[in-house]
Amino acid sequence: MMGSRATTAWMVGALLYAGAVQAQSSAPAAPPKLPPGVSAALWKLSVPPGAEPTPEKVALGEKLFLDPRLSADNTVSCSTCHEPAQGFVDGKALSTGIKGQQVTRNSPTVLNALFNASQFWDGRAGTLEDQAKLPILNPREMGMPSPEAVVTKVQAIPEYATAFKAVFGRDVNYDDLAAAIAAFERTQFSGNARFDAFITGDSKALNASEKRGWALFNGKARCNSCHAANIVSPLFSDQKFHNIGIAAHKQDFVQLARKAVGVVRLGDEKQIDELALQTEFSELGRFLVTKKENDIGTFKTPTLRNVGITGPYMHDGSLTTLWDVMDHYNKGGVPNPYLDGGMQRLGLTEPEIDDMVAFLFSLTDARYAKFNGQELARQQKRKGTRPERDTAVALGKKGNLGDLAPNPDLAVKNPAAVGVYGAETSVPGAAK
Amino acid sequence: MNFQTKLLAGLIAASSLAGGAALATGSGLKAEPLPQHKVPVSKEGNLVVGLCDGVTSMEVEGVKDGQSMTRDQAQAVSTALMAEWRRKNPDANWDDVPPPAKAVAQAGKPKAPGTPPAAVDATQQKPSAGGAVKNAGQSAASGASEVAAQKDANLQTGHTYGAFSERDEKIWADSTQAFVDEGHRVFHDAAALGGTIAVSCDMCHPDAANTHPETYPKYQVQLGRVAMLRDMINWCIQNPVRGKPLGDDDPKMKAMEAYIYARRKGVPLEFGKH
């Protein structure tokens, strides 16, 4: 994955100077060889100086990532919920931690997570290192009681004691453990999708339906207002937090929000954190991090890269297929007082939804091509079962939601041709 | 075809012509064919290269009509044509050098084709305009008064609009710069322009000198009408470069406009100026 980028000098340096090397390397290292759909500019922006993955750290990090011994009862590893063969997700609506406990969130993919502006659905961690530390300690996930307990346990495993000594030049500590896992995750970029071939000039890489989907994505379906992408940031995500009404599906959301705002206004921020761990308050999303009313029920816009193989969808996995996702947006989300102002019904017809989904499946990396095909077939079979579908609302035959915009005439102007996505040759910092 | 059907066909043709004309004049402006620069024919069958003024031309000895020059030959011809134009127009205003605001960024030797321009900076403009990214703080235009200091740069205050971080602005600036770099590539590459005789834009306009994007739209003598920058780019592509004009929405055209504008960052907008 990494190629043979790291030099012998680096390895010797790592051994001699141990962790000090990390702090010293001020000049950002050159990115590894990146596929067309991964931007060197974004790589440099996203990999902090000193945290560049080295083969040694990556190998140790991968071992840790796959090791259930990081959990309290040796049953759950990072890969339990982020299974590499399955696109680094578990395919479940909600993930399962130790002792069969269900957590409140759908596991997001590790693929391209290194480019995220923040980690977790509510963005509560700023870096991959911070992210890696939390599930190990979460009582419902890997359930270790404390960082010290993790260190003691890992240090007692001879192969790790040796490996940490070799890579970091010292005994196991929690920061180094997180750094190793993060280093492995920083090699899990993905940008070799059919879409990338299409955007870099192979007009036959997408079929007619997928091309219509790309036009809808930029136009009538308004996807790009949050799932924006270009050659510098090809993630299909604005990395912002939006309330699209998913949390309002299941509970009396207004009541919940009112209670939470009340708690915060009383100044008891600690109580709300505790409530979030045990109750449906976790459905308040980003609000739990910022304590700002504007953030009630908002969750991070996920990347659409590999979206075909990383379902079920949304923070709670409540939407099973991409058809369900399109149905959700088509009717303008689920109304609630905190709904994002950008949400409105789209008036997509059934063939347009099919085109949209076809396009989304073209964003999957080539290494998962076979799995992607299977997933498409599986989701297609469920097309008849669509609880989110409300065609009457979507098309404006019910409710009072104002006029829909007219359908664009692709012969006159293709919304996908507005502005530029960019050319591969023009990415700043990319090898010419 | 008997007389009646001929008449009918003629009528249909006439009415569709009228329809087409009505369409073209819908805005009150007529789309007429552009005047062409007809370069004289060489007696020896040599290549004759025209200048963008629509008048000056030069015969290239040793290169037959229909052949392409080398890049060095093309540069020599372009330089000679420019010298000839200046001899004929001693009082004409031609900016060889970049404007003062750019002098630092553009100092040094002309770049080889394919090398990107240095990022334009040294002005106090928004990074999204293609300049350097500011180091700290936030501007009024980035909204969100509470988008926090570096530690919490990813903290979002509003749930949608206006909550932009420095990371966002860096991405925007890079995206714009990528577009400018692509324009630089096309501007310096005869093949990318679709040119057939190896002449590229930079041969007369090193570093996009004297392109004056800030003066468009303006009356262009060669075209006999008011033109947009892209019209003038296309005139140059058709005449000195000997290529096919690009569509208004061709990504190459958009990129070249971006590059040409980027080279004039900080210069006041003065449309119509000569």
Report on the structure:
The complex is a heterodimer of chains A (432) and B (274). With 432 residues, chain A is mainly alpha-helical. Chain A has 18 helices and 2 strands. Chain A has a two-stranded antiparallel sheet. Chain A is globular. Chain A starts with 7 loop residues before the first helix and ends in a 38-residue tail after the last helix. In chain A, 48% of the residues are buried. Chain B has 274 residues and is mainly α. Chain B is built from 7 helices and 4 strands, in the order αββααααββαα. In chain B, strands 1-2 form a two-stranded antiparallel ribbon. In chain B, strand 3 and strand 4 form a beta hairpin. Chains A and B meet through helix 3 and strand 1 of A and helix 4 and helix 7 of B.
What's the layout of helices and strands?
The complex is a heterodimer of chains A (432) and B (274).
Chain A (H helix, E strand, L loop, with lengths): L7 H10 L2 H5 L15 H7 L8 H11 L12 H4 L46 H10 L9 H9 L2 H11 L5 H12 L8 H6 L8 H11 L22 E2 L10 H13 L3 H10 L8 H4 L8 E2 L21 H9 L19 H12 L7 H13 L9 H4 L38
Antiparallel strand pairs in A: 1-2
Helix pairs in contact in A: 4-9, 6-9, 11-16, 15-16
Chain B lengths: L2 H22 L21 E5 L6 E8 L6 H18 L14 H4 L59 H22 L2 H4 L24 E3 L4 E3 L1 H10 L12 H12 L12
Subcellular location (chain A): Cell envelope
Pfam families (chain A): CCP_MauG
Keywords (chain A): Heme, Iron, Metal-binding, Oxidoreductase, Peroxidase, Signal
